[in-house]
Write a structure and sequence with these properties.
- The longest helix is centred in the last third of the chain and has 15 residues, at 326-340.
- The strands form two sheets. An eight-stranded antiparallel beta sheet has the order 1-11-8-13-6-5-2-4. A five-stranded mixed beta sheet has the order 3-7-12-9-10, with no helix packed on it.
- It has helices at residues 25-28, 44-51, 53-61, 100-110, 126-129, 219-224, 271-281, 287-300, 326-340; strands spanning 34-36, 69-74, 81-82, 94-98, 118-125, 147-153, 156-161, 166-173, 176-181, 227-231, 236-239, 244-249, 254-261.
- With 342 residues, the chain is α+β, with helices and mostly antiparallel strands.
Length: 342
Amino acid sequence: MPSCKLPTPPSVAEVEIRHVSDISQSLLTSDTPWVARGLAKHWRLVDAATTTTEAGLAYLKSWYQGRPINAFIAEPEIQGRFFYNDHLDGFNFTQLETALDRVIDKLIALRGQPKPAALYVGSTNVDAWLPGFRKENDLPLQHLDPLVSLWLGNRSRVAPHFDFPRNLACCAVGKRRFTLFPPEQVDNLYVGPWDMTPAGQPISLVDTHAPDLARFPRFEAAWRDAQIAELEPGDVIYIPGMWWHQVEATDDINVLVNYWWSETPAVMGSPVDAFNHALLSIKSLPHQQKAAWRKFFDHYIFTDNPEQSVTHIPPEQRGRLGAIDDAMARRLRAELTNRLKR
């Protein structure tokens, strides 16, 4: 944990959900995080691992059909912190293609060593790599059409990062610690390069276990707004989209399964695409023009009442300024594609 200058943040709020079928829509659309204790305790994986960790891993292996996976491995010196090298032009780990059962066997072999190598498998599609697993290990979120992913490894620490979709993460084997920061703290998290990231998402450069406040002085403000959740097997945490979160696996062997989903259909695209386009077309404009475009975005995009900006236009003539249906989304995508080809 950080030095004594930074006190322990408050815990993420807990909600009581007596049965998995009782997860309300209001919880699944919440703008603040929450923890539900024991929500996934009925999973066969959780139950098997309660007997022994080896039993849980054997159960997990029983669903694997041999499809290669990507794994990260690093020297003991990194102490599980998968990160950049000292010059930010590479990483402190090696990525390799291997088999899931080999990773599991290696984790068992590393277990108990005083200074084990760090081994980590992240964001592996459960339906593709463990077909049938969700028959006995699932939450009733089919109506959201989520992407369900497996995360596996020994002690590890993934730096604060954000995801656009909403996230429900289930601690299945071992313990996890989540440290969360609200989106408005982006100014104080000292985000690293976007062009080269350890796992696809930009991350904070601050080592939260030993923050260098001389180099990253604003991080103290981010830490004051942080929340922490300590998860046991069967516990679940909900993370709203765009919340920054650090994830730590704190046992010798850990397994987590998470659900990602978005309210908007895939045809709408990702806001990251708009961000990249803005870097290209708006960031370098003169100040006055940027200010004018900010007003346009506030008027049409970021307003909480988009209907107000077009009430003077008949509904049938609003086009792209009205509700974006599938046909309009595809039209806009085609238009953008054609323009970007110039």
